[in-house]
Write a structure and sequence with these properties.
Distance between the termini of chain A: 34 Å
Low-confidence stretches of chain A: none
GO molecular function (chains A, B, C): beta-galactosidase activity; metal ion binding
Shape of chain A: globular
Radius of gyration of chain A: 26 Å
Oligomer: homotrimer
Helix content of chain A: 25-40%
GO cellular component, one term (chains A, B, C): beta-galactosidase complex
Largest sheet of chain A: 10 strands, mixed
Strand content of chain A: 15-25%
Strand order of the largest sheet of chain A: 14-13-15-16-23-22-21-18-19-24
CATH topology of one domain in chain A: Rossmann fold
CATH architecture of one domain in chain A: 3-Layer(aba) Sandwich
CATH superfamily of one domain in chain A: Class I glutamine amidotransferase (GATase) domain
EC number (chains A, B, C): 3.2.1.23
Catalytic activity (chains A, B, C): Hydrolysis of terminal non-reducing beta-D-galactose residues in beta-D-galactosides
Mean pLDDT of chain A: 97
Protein name (chains A, B, C): Beta-galactosidase
Largest interface: A-C, 55 and 61 residues
Chain lengths: 666, 666, 666
């Protein structure tokens, strides 16, 4: 890709006449759109009858766009196999958990593991790659669209067979599976892999191992499909490949992006839920570390379908969103969609231009984004996002374990976002990192809500601690094995010895009137908890009331040059929030985090690093304005004037670029 | 039919012994029941074994009733095909949206489009018509019972084939369907009509065109069944034919009644929701204009089934219901049911007589109805309901569009009833009229909640305006094409030019803090909205706050001798209610509506026209009493005394008949 | 069984290695566990491949336990047929009400009526009985586990055929079924039994008779399976047989226990819902009158599964639970489960020992139970629970009628428990007795919430009244026939003449502003009600406001030496609760109940009878402590000191054993 900041939109030229397309391109240029994404649902346009493939419309389109200064991200159209694929072939279709076979007429209706689907997907993708791969306008590729957004695990016969193969590969023999899963429970015991059921309807809950492994199987298979498709494209194109994913989909993003070239995501977070937006930036930056990510889809104003709509963004918010994204590592900020759909189930969805070719309610906000992009582009291209000192491990595989065992309807995304929000509020620059991420460069690591901690992760965290890091483990972390069973050596397995504790009891603290005290705060404790007897460790948080008074729920164990902190229970409510913030603040202090600012809630500071200087990108995200305390003289790059230490006021949705020499202290 | 007011009940003599029937007839006579409806579920009694048909029981029954002064509405028994039809024939049964095949044991279990069903339905109906069509007691016919009350669109294979035929008839070629629906979206594109799916399970929403058209198809087919059945009956009987329908069922009532002879409905509205009751009277009066309608079913006290019950009516309410219905154009007021069911799933349902032959808790109220009927009969037979000056267009086809695209769980019936209630509260006499109704005679026309406005409707409304009418369009009106797609010339298509406006934006105003001001009132604006730039039109309602400040949400365009008023947004909450009432009052004033009274809320005035005089039927519906201001000397027909101008107090559930000479002013 | 109090746990040795088992037995002995229950899900361990049966592990296990002083309740493993039974045999599996076929992987997945299931179940049970039936350690048998806990009525083809046979046996001819059910309603009418459907999906509700009879059929069949299994065991073992049932399951407990030897139940009632716990003791004591019951499963601390958990018990509660159970007639108090599951879907469930072999959060409470057991054992073995003077009839068949006809989502268990709680609060010793129980020895009988009262029950109640009993009938009692239809002679059938009343009306009183007055209290009346005209009876409760003012809702009819009290409506809310307590108190006084104590709410007194003396077991159940007034000198058996009349304070979860000479007055 070229070194620029992209401002783009999803575009469906196959749905419009030539004169409309001409009008679109004209308005795109006026608006400042410099990239469009095309092709993702266009299989029937490319291959109306089976085997009659013609990509000409799209090669022409890409050229026409390129001639007008607009580059293209080309998509494969695999989320929507045409009617010649679907009609009269229920065996090719997705089957849900109730056994219902999906029909044609929406999207993601095919089983992506179906052999014929894979064959036809390979053919169409090869045709597309061959036809457009060499075109100068093509700067990137998107595989498919939002894998597993509308569907979870497929229960078709193809998947059943693949599942048995996957299990055999994982477990070797059925005996080892029986042993690992303890299948004599409820006489589930299997003689052959082919007997292992899919988690289909049953009178009561399925076995945890079966449920979790089936999710892991499904996530692996969709990533394999991506790998397969990427390999085909690479035969014909050097342009980098991505997929527009999300934490909301049933995929393992770490695995998915492993063999792709850059990471991107879609988000339709509400303007009133800034953390749910920013968490994506702080996570996606780390799926392909050192490489910019893309926001591939976001609404210029509001999302909608036939059956629902969100509130349109307040004026000004879109600009704040874009600047925050670019500052946190995005190379592109793209809308879904350019021109409002004329037909289908997303007709009401917000767009840049209406179906009748006029500016929408969000249009002036799009212009503001373009103005901001121009203002900040040179500064941003000269800098890169600062690596955070603090990391929070994020895991979609852990999401699968929690989906199997949600205790009380716990929702992974909600838990993680609420946990993340506290770091935002405290003004601490942070990375969300995948399980397999390198821990070098971090000083403080949080590992919450991960039922199963892999030995590999523990080993790397141990090395991180040895070298001086502080590792905070919990809550809800480490209590399950790889197979989603209970440890039999200790409640938290090998972790306990490392942390210098013995877990006395594990039980749900909700409803037991448990009160914990730590860091000068007392708070109710809840969720599934581990109560500790300290061995080598020190008790830092004590249970004052409840079923285990006097025992510890937070412990500290020095290890090497660092420290392992166990957080066995979840402090609840406002008091719990305060206690957790005190905990974070405490260890941020101990770890001597420097990338921390005294910023008011609702405003963010994104630190970026240039050659011998730092730039703070400050953005007010909540529309109430805010302030940041500046402790060192800097230079306001937009106002082009020096900035003296003191309180810097930030207006409603305002952004500022402040440059500091590298000797500054935050 | 004879010129009388009917007081009737549904009766199931096939379920009882001869002595019980004899007792029933005796009590009916004492009670004043002069008509019963029989036969609607009695197929197994008439044709216990396939082909062994005997209608004798019913001919005898009708004669026995007639000899006792009780006339009969005869039903066809088609909602409940016997076991010889259902057993071992899943292909004849109704299939729901999840693909579940219905079984025997309830009602509406057959697919009414199944060819064998149609054949057997024709046979039994012909036998019945031949046997009873000539009997003097038979004064009318009811086809089937509550078409599509328990089921919506059928998904069986028969329907699939018919669906393809219906599409072919509508669209001619598959190419024209593809074009109209824009099926390249999501690669839905079809090569042959037989490929077009039914809206069966899919991973996400189906295409709007598919969903809406499938509903229109289903509504047409059930009406065709009614046509077919009516034609058979007419071979043997001159008695008029109806169907007991409702706004709650999945039918197009305008189409359904087109080829029937008179309109009737069933209602079980709560006594605390008077508008939900009255709206039926004001609508059904207009399905067969100039011909009295029937209330075919209403509860004498409370509705109930095994799984639910409603609160019994307060004493006195039933009489108010009956008098209001007769006054608003009903020829009959009939109960469901005469004798409480001994068996089945409606055993607990309220009735006139208990299963053990005794008066129920509602019985004295039924006697009150009969007394009232006798009191008012001669006055009502000498008059007819006054045509309203104000009309609100009601459309079941529009309901289908809204069911496809409900935005935020919008419910057509609730929206329309709440809109209607304001006219009631303002004391304005009103007609609800079907889309195809003649607009002659009206001065003020409201067209709310109609996603798709047909060119035919627009043309007729335009002529109405030309001749001096005021047409208020919206909210939620005109934004979709016939095929349930978005206009591409303008947000509201041809309507905009006519109304002298340009729709700048359409978007959901909920959650955007939008405030509109008009007619001296300010109110929050919500729902999916159209924001106007006035061209020739004048801005009457201005958006004061929100995303489009200064733009119009209400506009006025003079056209011919009349005026087109666009209402682009929904004023919400109590303030919105006030604003809407001001709007209605304003245009009622401009239109110089005379059929308006100064009546307190909860009391109604139904104006009727005699030969050179008018009669007001005044009824208190809410049980709190009320008053009406009389501005001209009248004559109290029940008290037989003059009535002088001033405030007339109306007691709890009281009714009054006041006659005025035609020179009066309201 | 031996004369001792058992303290036990469920144990799954087949899931653990020999060394773990050894450790378990060691800790059991330390803990005081003297009985374990084994084998209930172990079919795959016993018969891993079809026909390869080996019970050796369990015979060894029983011997090993016995050698360590631990006795065994042996289970049949029929709730979990192995994969060789399930795999590729959907026709053997349970089918739910939507037609969904259950798969392998959970439990209760087989249709228990399937012939092959019955055959294989007989084979495995015969092998087990032969192998372990003679072992000295085996003191009892449990059949299967929690019949119909996760599933209700099966809809498979096997059940369909058996259903037809059951109907034929019950009704003789299809004509008699048609007559009894009145099947001409909705043309349901059947020609052959094989045509009668199962209550599978239909457009609206099924016929009440069909729904109720299908439940009775299902309950009879599962009891027949129990009978069949018990007969096999008895060929090889003299140890008594039971099943661990519950009021929450879809079984007829009275019928189920008829041919078993002793009664047992499982309960996981919350510590905050004492009545839901105690009601089991007061009911199960009467399924096998004169024989001690078992609490076969209860949590030592909290119940949990992958998807939910309950709050752990407060410390001290478990001991109160155990003492209350023993005092009210339990011979055993057993936990589910001994060692936390390592795998499966119940991993998080509370246990005595963790999966890693350590005491759990509940362990000290288990030790307290053992201490209490030792303290009270000799006193309890020397006494038996006093027969109550007051009985409330409990019927699972009635639950089936209410499930068919729940009016407004009425829940049988909730209704009965709330009704029962009042007797507890009033300190009245009470029996819940099955419908067929002998009424001798009772003075006051309540019969609430029984839609259908059998002639046999009415005759026995009539004899009870003749001899001096007071019988309170209602609410919601007697209004349906055996076939779940409406009486046609009188609303409540033969009951009315007996009670000297005529039911004028039946209707739902909710929402009718009905107020009733009786025993000096006024209260709103609700639920489906019967309004009485007194004939011979006296009006005791009068409807003051509503639709039937002046009529009676409570009547009294003297009959023989006793009295029949009709309660036609449900007093609602706090005032209703007060009125009902006054009613109970009034008739308790008239009946001269002596087994009544002046105990504070949350504390119970369980009276037991010894040879010439009485022992009160007093237990505080709510953790707040309480008091009882002692009116006669007694002897505190635990403190070994006299107790003088006056107020006796009971501490938090404290229990006391007070002995009185038989001349005492309560």
């Amino acid at each position: 890709m070229n070194r620029k900041l992209y401002h783009g939109a999803a575009y469906y030229p196959e749905l419009w006449d030539a004169d409309v397309i001409e009008q679109d391109i004209k308005i795109m240029k006026e608006t400042g759109i410099n990239v469009v994404r095309i092709g993702e649902f266009a299989w029937s346009k490319m291959e109306p009858e089976e085997g009659q493939i013609n990509i000409g419309f799209f090669t022409d389109m890409i050229s026409q766009l390129y001639e007008n200064g607009i580059e293209t991200v080309m998509c494969t159209p695999t989320p929507t196999p045409p009617i010649w694929f679907s009609y009269d072939h229920p065996e090719r279709m997705f089957v849900d958990g109730q056994g219902t076979v999906m029909g044609h007429g929406s999207r993601q209706h095919a089983c992506t593991n179906n052999a014929y689907f894979r064959e036809k997907a390979a053919v169409i993708t090869e045709h597309i790659a061959r036809a457009v791969g060499h075109l100068p306008g093509v700067i990137g590729w998107q595989l498919d669209n939002e894998f597993k957004a509308h569907v979870a695990e497929c229960m078709c016969q193809t998947c059943k067979t693949l599942w048995h193969g996957w299990l055999e590969e994982r477990y070797g023999t059925i005996g080892q599976l029986n042993e690992a899963w303890g299948t004599h429970i409820w006489s589930e015991y299997y003689h052959r892999f082919e007997q292992v059921p899919q988690p289909a309807p049953a009178p009561f809950l399925h076995h945890s191992s079966l449920r979790t492994m089936y999710q892991l199987f499904s996530m692996e298979k969709i990533a394999e499909f991506a790998d397969e498709q990427a390999a085909i494209i690479r035969k014909y194109s050097d342009a980098p490949i991505t997929h527009n994913s999300s934490v909301a989909f049933h995929v393992d993003n770490e695995r998915l992006f492993k063999n792709l070239d850059f990471a991107s995501f879609d988000t339709y977070a509400s303007s009133t839920n800034t953390p749910a937006y920013l968490i994506n930036c702080d996570l996606w930056r780390n799926f392909k570390k050192g490489r910019a990510f893309w926001i591939m889809e976001t609404s210029p104003s509001f999302s909608a379908s036939l059956e629902s709509y969100a509130a349109p963004h307040p004026n000004g918010y879109l600009k704040a969103e874009a600047v925050a994204a670019y500052a946190l590592g995005a190379e592109a900020f793209c809308y879904w969609l350019w021109r409002q759909q004329r037909t289908g189930c997303e007709q009401p969805h917000g767009s840049v231009i209406s179906a009748w070719g006029k500016p929408t309610v969000g249009y002036t906000n799009v212009l503001e984004v373009e103005q901001a992009r121009k203002e900040i582009e040179s500064v941003l291209l000269a800098t890169i996002p600062a690596q955070a000192e603090l990391a929070i491990t994020y895991s979609d595989r852990s999401k699968a374990y929690l989906k199997t065992e949600p205790h009380q309807k716990l929702n992974h995304r909600g838990l993680v976002t609420a946990f993340y929000e506290r770091f935002l509020t405290l003004g601490i620059h942070r990375d969300l990192i995948p399980e397999g991420a390198d821990l070098d460069g971090y000083k403080l690591l949080f590992t919450p809500f991960i039922h199963y901690l892999s030995p590999d992760y523990i080993n790397r965290a141990q090395q991180f601690v040895e070298k001086g890091g502080i590792w905070v483990v919990g809550p809800l972390t480490g209590g399950r094995t790889e197979h989603h069973t209970i440890h039999t050596d200790a409640a938290l397995g090998q972790l306990e010895q490392l942390a210098g504790v013995e877990t006395l009891y594990t039980y749900p603290m909700d409803g037991t009137n448990s009160i914990g005290r730590a860091f000068g705060e007392s708070a109710p404790l809840g969720m599934w908890s581990a109560v500790f007897e300290t061995k080598e460790a020190a008790a830092v948080g004590i249970i004052e009331e409840g079923l285990a008074p006097g025992k510890a729920f937070i412990t500290e164990q020095k290890y090497g040059k660092g420290k392992i902190v166990m957080l066995g229970s979840m402090p609840m409510g406002e008091e719990g929030d305060m206690l957790l913030k005190k905990l974070i603040g405490h260890y941020a202090g101990e770890a001597q985090l420097s990338l921390r600012t005294n910023v008011t809630q609702g405003t963010i500071v994104a630190p970026r690093v240039g050659d011998g200087y730092t730039v703070w990108v400050i953005v007010n995200m909540d529309g109430h304005g805010g302030s940041v305390t500046i402790s060192q003289e800097g230079y306001d790059l937009l106002k082009q004037q020096p900035l003296f230490p003191g309180k810097l006021e930030i207006g409603k949705y305002e952004y500022r670029l402040i440059q500091f020499e590298d000797t500054r202290r935050y």
